[in-house]
Amino acid sequence: MKTIGTTIFASLLFVTATTAPAEWKRHTIDASDKESGKLGADGVRLADANGDGLMDVVTGWENGDAIRFCLNPGPANAKEVWPGVTVGRIPGAEDAVFADLDGDGALDVVSCCEGKTKAIFFHWAPAEKDRYLDAEAWKMEELPAGKKADQAWMYCLPFDVNRDGALDLIVGSKNAGGTMSWLKNPGNDSARDLTKWKLTKICGATWIMSIRETDLDGDKNPDIVFSDRKSGKSGVFWLKTKAKAPYFEPKILLGCEGQEVLFLDIADINADDRLDIAVAIRKDKIGYLVQPETNPESGNWPPQSQTGGIPQDRFGGAKAVRIADLNFDGNLDVAFTCEGANGDLSGCGFVSLYTGPLAGELAVHDIGGPEGVKFDRIELIDLDNDGDLDLMSCEERDQLGVFWYENPAK
Environment class of residue 407 by beta-carbon count within 10 Å: exposed (0-12), middle (13-18) or buried (19+)? Predict the structure, then answer.
């Protein structure tokens, strides 16, 4: 891969590795179950909920109604089904994320719903960590501001906007009246009075897919990067933040204008000590936005997509990406998941990238095989403590539930 200006240009030729890759075994974290509302797992979000140093996972089951929290049992038991609890039951859950909403040290859960529900819910965690798996110890409440806005809520990012020590929420929605908005926490002492949470529009949106926090330009201020999926106004955007009101600068279009962008990831792709962006673009592309050396806030981050970047004779359509060196060859890889992976098509794989001359080939490796149809966002995490990064995701149509693929690199 060679860098020309601010654009990564990738070869258009994609091949399968000359030797068959080792199998990535799938291990179930939380299995589908219609009776308990576990249908259509939609998203995995991580945090160390009980302070044991292990990342736990929360998921909304969109086609059922369960909001599920699963405790990581540790490397020795990670291949077994994880202990879990349903912290609430709500139809149309599109996203669920951990957040300490009242500053008591216990990680609560926020769920966002589309469909007929169109609401945001807080699931208050028990103060006693040994009761996290006790469903009766959780309390679910609907946020009035989220319901009043009458929006199809898609994604939530916990983010202390005004730097007052109380965790606010950045929420995104889709369709008519869609927005990126800020839910202001009234303060830790008042957080449980849901009438005091105020919703403020940051900017308009058409279909929010990703909302990520990062210091994109290295100025020591946290920023927001998000992908907006639909219409001619779609693309990858940057919200610079500041410590004083109004807290957000106008959104900056970084690239992929008018394209159907889905989940994105942020990393230094070309080893120049600046953060870049990779994004899944429907149907078969992975787009790369490379940060320019000067004036990144100009928005001049033109993308170059890999035409055929996810071969459609072998895989479904692009859904999510994550960047890391998965096979220890010294080069970054882009793990991807897919939707529409019907029949013999795979729903998960990775593309090997190169920082030097490409020599005409990019290897595309299969991870998931033919099982599964509609996969979602990715987490790369070493769950079995063997020194390589495993891939965690979930699947909605074949009801594979929440699971992880075991990296065979080590």
Answer: buried
